[in-house]
Design goal:
Length: 265
């Protein structure tokens, strides 16, 4: 069995990091209101809340840094904008690969990555990870409206969807590393590949202690196109008919000019 994956509807809408972590963490801690630092067990922020995709974009890293109060482990989940995805299954019939079944999934994260300070199995049990949707195996990935599958078929199509996302680098199969500086300060680098979809991402940081979430914080991250490419993308999206007509005209004119050049030669 072979599978293909198509995005039906995507939510809409980089930079290289160089700032040292020390001054950023110090500023973050100093910004906490007086008397609140001891009550708030987790505080975190991003070095950059906007990733601009330009013509030469090859992927980027965003630094996440923060501090915790007391003991505990840190888990970071990066979730992209949700989209509707169609997964097609191909079977070989009479020597030819043909699409034999397609299944739609709703609210599929366009991007999903995890980082943790220790192996996830040591930080939280299976029930906690399932509740928080930590790990690709715990993503709910609901079927689109009107879809009906047996449990076995649904598991097969879900696995195929995740495999295709992983093959495109949008669901990294390995867990990233959250490193501690001393017992309080932590940081991790979030890598976004060159094909990362645009939209608003959610970066959720959990402080887990003795198999329980004691604090959590959510921070938005915007991934947006910038420059001339962004203008073309917006025009094509908002005025698809006009964009198609212009593309046809350009192709006709280019063909006519090429014919003149060859005719003279």
């Amino acid at each position: 069995m072979s599978t293909t994956l198509n995005t039906v509807r995507n939510s809409r809408p980089a930079s290289r990091l160089s700032a040292p972590i020390g001054p950023m963490l110090l500023a973050l801690i100093l910004l906490l209101p007086a008397g609140r630092a001891s009550a708030q067990e987790l505080v975190a922020d991003l070095s950059n809340h906007l990733v601009a995709i330009t013509a030469g974009f090859t992927g980027t890293e965003v630094l996440l840094f923060g501090a915790i109060e007391g003991e505990g482990d840190v888990v970071v989940a990066v979730t992209g904008p949700t989209q509707e995805v169609l997964v097609r299954r191909k079977d070989k019939l009479l020597g030819i690969w043909l699409n034999t079944r397609s299944v739609g999934f709703a609210d599929v994260p366009a991007f999903y990555a995890i980082a943790s300070s220790r192996p996830l199995e040591e930080i939280a049990n299976a029930a906690v990870r399932a509740r928080l949707e930590i790990g690709t195996g715990n993503l709910r990935l609901p079927l689109a409206e009107g879809e009906s599958l047996t449990a076995t078929d649904e598991a097969d199509f879900r696995a195929a969807l995740i495999r295709r996302k992983q093959a495109r680098g949008l669901y990294p199969p390995t867990v990233g590393q959250v490193g501690f500086v001393g017992r309080t300060l932590f940081r991790t680098r979030l890598f976004l590949p060159s094909n990362v979809p645009t939209g608003t991402y959610t970066v959720t940081v959990y402080l887990i202690r003795e198999q329980e979430v004691v604090s959590a914080q959510t921070t938005p991250l915007l991934v947006s196109k910038a420059g001339f490419g962004a203008d073309v993308y917006e025009f094509a999206y908002n005025h698809s008919a006009a964009y198609g007509a212009i593309a046809v005209i350009i192709a006709v004119v280019a063909g006519w000019l090429a014919s003149l050049v060859f005719r003279k030669s």
